[in-house]
Amino acid sequence: MHLKRLLVAAVVVPLLYLYIMYLPPYYYLGLLTLITAAGLAEFYALAGVNGILRYSGIMTGAAILPAHFFLRGSIPDVIMLAALIVLAVRLFQKRDSSGSLRESTAAVFGLLYIPGLLSFQLDIVKAGAPLLVMLYSAVWGSDSMALYVGKSIGRRKLYKEISPNKTIEGAFGSLIGGVIGTMLMRAAIIPDMLIVNAVILGLVVGFTSIIGDLVESMFKRDVGIKDSSSFIPGHGGVLDKIDSATYAGPAFYWCCLMLGIIRL
After folding, report:
1. Positive/negative CA dihedral, 142, 143, 144, 150
2. Residue 115 belongs to a domain
3. Residue 264 resides in a domain
4. Residues 165-205: pLDDT tens digits?
C-alpha cells in the first residue's frame, strides 16, 4: 500500500508542479473542474443522491468554477442558481416526496462543500502560481507528517469517534509538515516572502488540513465506508485526496489576504 502511494506521488507531483507553474491559470481551471466533477460524483454516491438529481448536481457544480474564474465575485449568485436548479430537478424527478429533504439537502450541500470550497484555489492561482504550489506543498507535507508521526509515535487518540487512527502526536506532525512545506517552497520559488509569513501559512494549513480530513471522515463514518472510492491506486478516491485542501485552500487564501501577500 505504501509503495503504491509513493509510486503514484512520484509520478503525479512533478507533473502537477509543471502543469501549475508553466501553463496559464485557465489550464488549472480545467483540471480543477474535472476534479470537482469527480469529487461531486463520489460525494453524491456517499449521500445516496441518485438519478438525474445526481447528474444535475455534478453538472451545475462543475459549472460554478468557470463562472467564478471568468466572472470574479459572482460565486454566491452562481451557487444560489445551481441550488435552485437542483431543487427544481428533485421536485420534478419523482412525484413521491419521501426522502426529498435528505436528497435535496445533500445535493445542495455538495455544491458548497466541493466547488464552493475549491473555488478559492482559482483566486490563489490567479494571484500567482507559486502560491498554489506552496499551498499544495504544505497540504502534502501536513498529510505526510501526520501519517508518519502518528504511526511512529502516536499514542493518544485525537478524535476516536470520527477517526480512530488519528492521534494528537500526528496532529502536531501535521503542523510541522505544513511549516516544512511552506518553508521549502519559500526557499525554492518565493524567496521574497517573509519567513514569519511562511511559518504562519504553514501552521494555518497544518491545522485546517486536520479539520478537512476529519470532516470527510465524519461523512464516511456515517455511511460506514473507509475510502470514498478506489479511483486512485493506494490513495482511495478523489475526495480522499482533496479533503484536506477543501479547508486549507480558503484558509490559505484568507491568510494571504490578511498578511498582504494577495491583494484584491
Report:
1. positive
2. yes
3. no
4. 899 999 999 999 999 999 999 999 999 999 999 999 999 99
φ and ψ at 232, to 5 degrees?
A: -110, 115
> Could you tell me the residue range of the domain that residue 220 belongs to?
2-259
Q: Please answer whether residues 216 and 86 qualify as being in contact, where contact means their C-beta atoms are separated by less than 8 angstroms.
A: no
pLDDT band at 1 (very low <50, low <70, confident <90, very high): very low
- SS3 per residue for 33-62: HHHHHHHHHHHHHHHCCCHHHHHHHHHHHH
Amino acid identity at 54: R
Residues 6+ apart with CB under 8 A from 219: 43, 46, 47
197 domain-assigned:
yes
Measured between alpha carbons, how far is 226 from 220 in angstroms, rounded to an integer? 7
Please give the grid coordinates belonging to residue 140.
Answer: 502534502
User: H-helix or E-strand containing 138?
Assistant: helix 129-153
Q: What are 236's strand-pairing partners?
A: 232
Neighbours of 139 (CB within 10 A): 28
**Of the candidates 123, 132, 128, which has an alpha carbon nearest to the alpha carbon of residue 69?**
123
Q: How many CB atoms lie within 10 A of CB 165?
A: 13
Chain segment 66-112, per-residue pLDDT in tens: 999 998 778 889 999 999 999 999 999 888 888 899 999 999 999 99
Quick check: is 106 in a domain?
yes
> How many domains does the chain contain in total?
1
Q: Is 196 exposed, middle or buried (0-12, 13-18, 19+ CB in 10 A)?
A: exposed
